[in-house]
Amino acid sequence: MTTPKWNLIIDIDRCNNCNNCVLAVKDEHVGNDFPGYAAPQPRHGHPWLEMKRAEHGQAPIVDIVNLPAMCNHCDDAPCVKAGRGAVKKRDDGIVLIDPQAARGRRDLVDACPYGAVWWNEELQLPQHWIFDAHLLDQGWKAPRCAQACPTEAIRAVKVSDAEMARLSADQGLEVLKPELGTRPRVHYRNLKRYTHWVLAGTVVTQRNGVEDCVEGAAVTLSHAGRVIAQTVTDAFGEFRLRDLETEARACGLTIRHPGHGTVELSVDLSGSQTLQPILAPIRFN
Amino acid sequence: MTLASLSLSARLWGLSQVMRLFARRHPAFARHMAGYDGVAQIRLQDGSQGRWFAFRAGRLETGRGLHASPDLSLVFRDLDTAVSFLDPRVDQALIVHAAKNFKAVVQGDEDGIAWFMQLLNLIRSVGWERGLAMPDGSRRFTQVTNGGPLFVYVKDGRILRVTPIEFDDAEDAPSWVMPARGQVFKPQRKANVAPHALAMKSTVYSDQRLLYPMKRVDFDPSQPPGQRNEAMRGVSGYERIGWDEALDIVAGEILRMKREHGPGAIATYHSSHHQWGNVGYYLSALMRFGNAIGVTRVALNPDSWEGWYWGAMHHLGNSFRLGSPTNYGTLQDCLEECELILFWSSDPESQFGTYGGQDGGQRRLWGKQLGMQSVHINPHYCPTAGMMGGKWMPIRPGTDNALAIAIMQVWIAEDLYDRDFVAQRTTGFDEWRAYVTGESDGQPKTPEWQEAETGIPARDVRALARLWAKKKTYLAPGVRGSGLGGACRGINGMQWARAMILLMAMRGWGRPGVNFGNLQGGTPVDLHFYFPGYAEGGISGELNQTAAAANNYTRMPHLVSVNPVTQTIPRQRLPEAILDGQTEGYPLDPSSIEGQFRRTLYPAPGYSRVKMLYRYGGSSFGTIGDSNRFVAMYQSPNLEFVVNQSIWNEGEAKFADVILPACTQFERDDIGEWGNAGGFGLHMQEQLNHRVIAMQHRCIEPLGESKSDYQIFWDLCKRLGLGTYFSEGMTELDWCRRVFDSTDLPKHVSWRRFLKKGYFVVPPAPAGLRPPRDMQWYLDGRQKDVPEPYPLPGAYSSKYGEGLQTQTGKIEFISSSLKRFDPDSPDRPPLNRYIPAWESPRTEHGVKYPLQMITPHQRFSFHTMSDGKDSAINDIRDHRVWKDGHFWWILRMSPADAAARGIAHHDLVEVFNDRGRVICAADLTATLAPGVVHSFESCATYEPLATPGASADIGGCMNLLTPKRPQSAKTSSTAAMNAQVQVRRWDGELPAKRRRPLNQPARTEVQA
User: Fold this and answer.
1) Are B693 and B672 in contact (CB under 8 A)?
2) Is A285 within the bounds of a domain?
3) pLDDT tens-digit readout, B844-886
4) A19 inside 8 A of chain B by CB
5) Among A194, A228, A258, residue at a domain's last position
6) Residue B450 falls within a domain, yes or no?
C-alpha cells in the first residue's frame, strides 16, 4: 500500500484541446525504438493518446469538452490477465506490453475494454501508451504528455495507493468505466462534463415592447417529484444545467423570478439540449 | 622598424605558428586546412610588409615578405588596420569600418577567400562546443521556433525527440510572482510551446523534403524566353541536377536579367514568416542577398493587422504598432481589477499570441479562478470560448461594427458611458453621437437595428451594454486582446478595429480594470534586457526595410546594405503585376499615419518589369485571396525564369524552373529569442512568462544535399563576385557569436557556456521597475511612461511624449487623417459608420453561394508550417481527416446546414464558388450557427485534381475561394477571411494514383 506508484490526473476543465499531449507521444515514439519498453509507433493513425470531443447543446449555448484518453494502466488490467506473461504490471503501477513477448498477440487488442491497445500490422505487435516508463526509469519527473501540457490539465503523480485514494476523494476524481472494476491509474477531474448531459436555455421578458434578458431567475429541473439540478440565470438570462445523468426521461423545468413570476414547462430529456428562449410570464408595459 | 610594424610582423609569424599548432591539436581545424591548396598572402597595400602562407594537402609553409604569385591576398591599407584585424580581441566596428572604406581588401577566387577567412575564424571557434551530453548517450541541443523554444535530443546523428524547455532551478533565473486579490500567482517553470513546435521533428524527417537541386524537365536555360515551356510550370516534373549546375543557372539568369532588362527585372518574393532566427531569417540573410543583387521587392501588407493599420490607426495613432493598442503592465491590473473579459473575435487558445507559445493559457485560467466572466463575440464558439466558458454571441461575419454601434447607442441612451473621459480625452464625440442616435441620418442605431444585421438578439446587446458598463471590463479584440488576427482580416475588418477604439474611448480606457487584453500580454518580464528581434534585420544591414537602425545596426556593427532598386509590387497584386504588367498599391509604412497614403505604382518610373522571380518557400495558394491567380502568373511567359528556394516540395515550389533545397533550422546554426519580433512587434515577449533566449543549434547535418539559406545565398554570391560582401567571411556560427556579443547576454553568461547549455532565461523585471499599466498616463494626462520609443518624436502634435499621434493628440471619434486624405471616401469615411459588407448573403454572391465562410488563422500549424509534409499534426482530429487514402482539410459546419445538404460527419464535401473548388472533410459541429461555415486558412499543400488553376483542390487551400478585393479601395489590404460559398457532398472519387497508404513502410523517414 505504501509503495509509490504512478498515476495520471487529468482535469477536463483545463484542457484547451491543443493536442500537445497527442504530439508529444508521437514525437517520442514515432521512429524511435525503446527495447524492453516499446517498438516504434506507426507514423500515422495510431493515437496511443487520443483526444475525444463532446459537444453539448446547440448554438448559441454550447459546451465543448475534450477528453485525452490513453492506456489506463489498470491495476486489474484485462490485458495483463489475457497476456499470459506478455503483459506485465510493474511495481510502480505501470503496465507494459512486452514488445518481444507480445508479438503476434492480436488478442490483446480485443482484451482492452478501453480500445487503448493498437495493432501494429507491420510489426505484428499490440501497442499502447507506456506512461513513458523508459523516461521515468532514467529519472524524468513526468511522462511527456504531462510535460507538454500548457495548462496543467494533465499531471503525473507518484504516490502510494492510499495517498491516491485521498487525492481522488478530495478532488472528486473519477475513472473511465468504473463499472468494469479494472481500477485505472488514469483519473479524471470534471469527467461528468464529458460524459453527462447539459440542458441549457435563456429566460427573456418584454419590457415596454422591448425584449430583455431575465437575470437571477431560479431554474429547477425535476423528475418524478425529485429535483435533479438547479441553477440561476446570468445577466443574459442564460442557464446551463450540467452533469445530468444520461438517462432519457420526462422532466419538469421550473423558472422562478421574484419580478417575473413562474414558468413551468415539461422537457423530454434525451440528450444535451439548448431550449428555445423561454418567455417569463409577467411583462412590464 | 617601428613598434607597430614589429607588432604586425610578429603577429603574422605568430599566426602561422598558431595554424600549425591548431592543425596538430584540432582535427576540425586540420580538416578545414586540408580543404584548399594554394598560396594566401597577408600584406600591406604598399608592399612594405607581408607574409605568405602556402597550403598543400593540409600542410603549411610560410615565409616573410611578398610572394610572387599568391592565389589569395588580404591587403591592408596601413599598419593600424592590419593590426586591428589580427588582434585576438576582435573589434567589429573597426573591422567593418576598414572593409567599408577599402582599408582592407580581399583579392583572389571567391571560394579560396571564403576558405581562408573561415580558417582565420576557426582559430577562434575551433574549440566551441554545442549542446550538452546526456546520460543516455544523446546530446541535448536547443532551438527557438515560431511556436516556442525546444530542447532537441540527438542520438547517432538523428533527432530523437523535441521537448519544451523546463527550467533548471539551480541555474536559471527565478520566475516573477504576482499577488492579486489575496492570491499569489506564479507561472510554471517551463516554456509552454504551441503544438506546431512539437511536430517539427516529423517535418524534418518528411517524405516531402527537397533533398537535391532540381530542374523542371522541360526547362532549358539555353533556350530564349518564350521557348522555355513556361506554360508547363506546375504540370511538368523535375530532374535532379547538381549544385554547380543549379547555381550556375541561377547566377547566370541574375546577370542576364540585369543586362537584358535592367534594374528591377528580378523580384524576391518571400512569405510573411520563416523558420525562426536572427541570421537565417528572411529579413536577415535574404534581405542582405536581395540588396546585394538589387531586386524589386514584393512588399508585404499587414495581413494579420489590416483593420488596425488601415482603420484604427486613424482614431488612435500608434502607427508604429500598426494602429493597435499595447498591453504594458496589464497583467497585474487585469488580475487585480478586471471582472469581465470581452473576447471579440479573439481566440488566443488557438493562435497562441502568434509566436507566444502557450504561456497565456495558464494566466487565463487564473482569471477564471478569480471569477472573471467571459463573453465571446465570434461566429465560431472557438477553443478559447470552450475553455473559458461564458456567453457566446454568434455574430454574422462582417457585421461587428453594427453591434459595436448599438452598444454605444445603449450607453448613450441610458447614460452609461464615461463622460469625463469623452470630454477630456477624445474629440468629435458630438458628431459621432448624432450618428449613433440617428440625429444626423434619421436612423437610431438601436439594438433592434443591429439585430437585422448581426443576428444577435437585441436583448443580448442591451444586456451586454449594461453588463459592460457595470463591470470593470477588458476588451479583447484579436489574438492578443489588442489587435492582430481575428475580424481585422475580414471584409469589414477596418470598421471592426475602428469600433474597438471608439468603444474604449467611451469607457475611460486606462482606469483600473478598464483596458485592452485577454491575459495574453502585460507580464512583468524585463523588457530592457537587450536582445534583437527578428524584425531588427539580423545580418541584413538593411536600415529602411527592417528595424535594424534602431539598435541592431549600432550594437552589432556589420556592413550596411542598400537595395539599388526602389520598385515594389504589393504582394496582394503580384499576379496582376506579372500578367497585366501594371498595378498599384499602398505601402506598409508604420513610421507615420500618412505612410499608408502614398500610392505606389508598378512599374516604377524607369525600371524594368519583373521577368525573374526568386521565390522563397511556397505558401501563396494557402494564404492569399483568390489564389488561383498564382497559377496563371506562374504559367505566364512574362516570367522568364522562376527559382524557388524551399525546404519542402509543396505549394509554389512545384511551379519553379529550378528548385534549390534549403535545410530546416535544425540543420544550421542560428540564435534567437522566443517571441521577440522587434519592429512594430517590439516587446512581444510581454506575452510570455519568461524571456528565453537560445542558440538554435545545428543539431544534425543537413539532410541529403540540402543547404542552409545563408549558404545558398553565399554560394550564389561567390559566383557574382559578392561572396565576401555578403558573408563578411562569416559562417552562421560566427554570426551567432557576433549577435551574442551585441546583446546583454555577455553580462550574464559566457559565450562558451551559452553555446553549450543553449539557452538563457532573462531575470524578470524587479518589482519596482515593472512597466506601468498601459494608457494610465493618457487617462491622467501625463507624459507617456510605457517603455516604447513610439511614436517618432516628430509625430507628436503636442510636446514630446504628451498625447497621442493623432492630429488632435486625442482619440478621435471623427478621424482627422482620413479627413485630410479622402474625406468623401465611400468605403473608409472619417466617421466610422456601418457599411454592409460587399460580399455577404445579401449581395449577389450570396444568391448562388449562401453560406458565409470564415477562414481565421490556423490553430495547429503556424501558417503553412507544420501542415502537410507528412507531419504529425495531420493526425490531429481537428486538423485533418484521414479518409480514402488522403488527409483532407476540414470544413466545419452546423448540423442544420449539413442536414439541409444531406451531409454527414466526415463526408467529403465540395466547397465552391465562382473562384474555385476545394474538397474537404465536413466536421459537423454545434460551435457554428447555421449559415456560417469555418475552415482555417494556410493549408501548405496545393493539390489540383487535374489542370492546375482549373480543377478542384484536394490540398485544402481555402484561399482559392476568397476575394482578392481589398477591404477598401485605397489600401493594399486583404479581406480574405470572408467569402460566400456553397457546399455539397462530393460525388467524385479520388483516383487510385492519388491515394496513399496511411503508413508507408518503404520510406517513412528520410535518412541523412
Assistant:
1) yes
2) no
3) 999 999 999 999 999 999 999 999 999 999 999 999 999 999 9
4) yes
5) A194
6) yes
The answer to whether B1004 faces chain A, any CB pair under 8 Å, is: yes
Whether the CB-CB separation of B159 and B204 falls below 8 Å is answered with yes
Burial class of residue B300 (count of CB atoms within 10 Å of its CB; 0-12, 13-18, 19+): middle
Taking the alpha carbons of B161, B872, B618, B979 in that order, is the dihedral positive or negative?
A: negative
Residue of B208, B451, B875 to mutate for A, most A C-beta atoms under 10 A? B875
A46 shares its domain with A165: yes
| Same structural domain, B975 and B872 | yes
Q: The complex's ipTM? A: 0.97
Decide if B198 touches A, using CB distance below 8 A: yes
Residue from A66, A19, A47 nearest B927 by CA: A66
pLDDT of residue B1003: 43
Domain end, chosen from A194, A212, A241, is at: A194
Residue A276 in contact with partner chain B when CB distance is under 8 A: no
Determine the residue among A14, A17, A55 to mutate to test chain B binding: the one whose Cβ has the most chain B Cβ atoms within 10 Å: A17
Same domain, A265 and A165: no
How far B379 CA lies from chain A's nearest CA (Å)?
Answer: 10
CATH of the domain at A227: 2.60.40.10
A162 touching chain B per CB within 8 A? no
Domain extent at residue A102: 5-194
Residues B814 and B860 in one domain: no
pLDDT at residue number B1004:
38
Chain centroid, CA B725 distance in Å: 26
The residue count of chain A comes to 285
Q: What is the CATH number of the domain that holds B18?
A: 3.30.1050.10
| Chain B contact present for A54, CB below 8 A | no
Q: Does B656 touch chain A (CB under 8 A)?
A: no
User: What's the CATH number where B987 sits?
Assistant: 2.40.40.20
The answer to whether position A110 is within a domain reads: yes
Query: Which residue carries 536572427 as its cell?
Result: B278
Q: Which three cell numbers stand for residue B259?
A: 543586362
Task: Determine whether the interchain pair B381/A31 forms a contact, defined as Cβ–Cβ distance below 8 Å.
Answer: no
**pTM of the prediction?**
0.97
Put simply, the chain B residues between 434 and 473 with a CB less than 8 A from any chain A CB are 448, 457-460, 462-464, 466-467
Testing the interface with A: which of B365, B449, B879 to mutate, by most A Cβ within 10 A? Answer: B365
Shared domain for A179 and A219, answered yes or no, is no
Q: Tell me: the pLDDT tens digits for B813-851? A: 999 999 999 999 999 999 999 999 999 999 999 999 999
- Asked if B893 is an interface residue toward chain A (Cβ–Cβ < 8 A), one would say no
Looking at residue B1008, what is its pLDDT?
A: 36
* Minimal Cβ distance to B999: which of A17, A44, A138: A44
Distance from CA of A1 to the nearest CA of B (A): 31
**Does A206 lie in the same domain as A188?**
no
Domain contains B829: no
**pLDDT tens-place string over residues B574-597:** 999 999 999 999 999 999 999 999
CATH number, domain at A174? 3.30.70.20
For B660, the enclosing helix (H) or strand (E) is strand B658-661
Question: Is pLDDT above 90 for B298?
Answer: yes
In terms of Cβ atoms closer than 10 Å to its own Cβ (0-12, 13-18, 19+), residue B628 is buried
Q: Tell me the residues of chain B between 287 and 306 that have a Cβ less than 8 Å away from chain A.
A: none
Q: Which of A32, A57, A204 sits opposite B160 (nearest CB)?
A: A32
Same domain? For B116 and B154 the reply is no
Report yes or no on B403 lying in a domain.
yes
Phi then psi for residue B180, to 5 deg, are -160, 130
A230 phi, psi to nearest 5 deg: -150, 155
pLDDT at residue B328 above 70?
yes
Give the residue numbers of B marked as catalytic: 273, 303, 534
d(CA A74, CA B472): 48
- Across chain B, what does the average pLDDT equal? 96
Q: Give yes or no: residues B501 and B648 share one domain.
A: no
Residue A283 pLDDT > 80, yes or no? no
Closest alpha carbon within chain B to A51: B877
Domain around B937: 844-994
- How many Cβ atoms are within 10 Å of B51's Cβ, its own excluded? 21
Residues A111 and A238 both lie in one domain: no
C-alpha distance from B650 to closest chain A C-alpha (Å): 20
